[in-house]
Amino acid sequence: MARDAVATTISVVSKRIVILGGGTGGTLAANRLHARFGDSAEVVVVDRDDRHVYQPGLLFVPFGIERPEGIVRSRRGQLHRGIEFRVAEVDRVETADNQVHLTGGRTLEYDVLVIASGASLLSEETEGLTGSGWGETVFTFYTLEGATALREALARFSGGRLVVNMIDMPIKCPVAPLEFCFLADWHFRERGVRDRVQITYVTPLDGAFTKAICNRELSGLLDDKRVEVVTEFNTGQVDGAAGRLVSYDEREVPFDLLVSVPLHGGAQFISRSPGLGDELNFVDTDIHTLQSKAAPNVFAIGDATNLPNSKAGSTTHFEGETLVTNITHFLSGEELVGSYDGHVNCFIESGFHKALLIDFNYELEPVPGRFPEPHIGPLPLLRESRLNHLGKLAFQPIYWHVLLPGHDIPGVGARMSTKGKQLQAITQGGTR
Fold first, then answer.
1. 118 three-state secondary structure
2. CATH of the domain at 138
């Protein structure tokens, strides 16, 4: 945006902006909107609980790198003074009446609604996943409770077949299952039992990575770490008693310890809200303006949307600028701007105190290069480095103290820059 949303306030006739969800998107949106409008707009955040989990930290909990209690804070505590926070369950949204219906019969009227309800795990959609073996030989690290239980299971595991299975897209942070494989390789090497552990990554995709250039550039990492990859495997059943995954075409992958990434969907209240969501309950959202297609005064941010890009924290951060700008335009009766370009960047932890970095948008796949600038950018793209690992670790304090409060991250713009990127890799088959 042209002016800093945190430093500038504008005056409008008093309006109520209701935000459903107090996670990453809801919190940063609330703080940016409150900074933009000040007391001239009432900002209300609704969530079912007061527990804000730093979700990138879930990856580290099973390996003892992060403590469970170290990644949880109060949702209310992340909101600026003057923002109202309500603990309540949402029953449905009636966009025709500009009303949010809460459980218990209460209603909440709005002038502008922001859907920031994130993505939910749909474990029950996969036959047998939460049946026999759940919490014993079958786990997920996509919840705090699951990651904590998996930590104990990994500590006991000293040999056998470890299978990491992404059941289907979309999921939060698509690279996290691969990161788990890399960290597992490191974990078992440090314990001196790696030769007794077979690590297999099972995916419904035709390659380990969701982007073609990433597959081309990074597939060697999987070979180096002796991670077997099973592709185009559409999981139909988890047989925990027998220790096997069964695909819809009746292929089988045996396991002694299964780490599952369940199917994801949007919040359940979206299914009860006429016209708001798609078949997976993600909000049908304009990919550039972030305006819902259900009503002009409804917007969406983060994992709650059905945008065709990665569900990642950086995505939400970059969307925040466009969201606040367009709510301002809407309340002023002005035309919206299609300024969000699908920008995402992501650190990929690869073990042994190293990580990779990818940076891309709707139009441009991840490519090699330097970030954020070609000559002074210290972070290599699509290549392992210790600096990238330190960058991933540094993101947690940045998350709590910069991103959630609604500030911009210096040197990292909302719109993706091509500076420092080797664009010729797209047509020349990549560089190593």
1. coil
2. 3.50.50.60
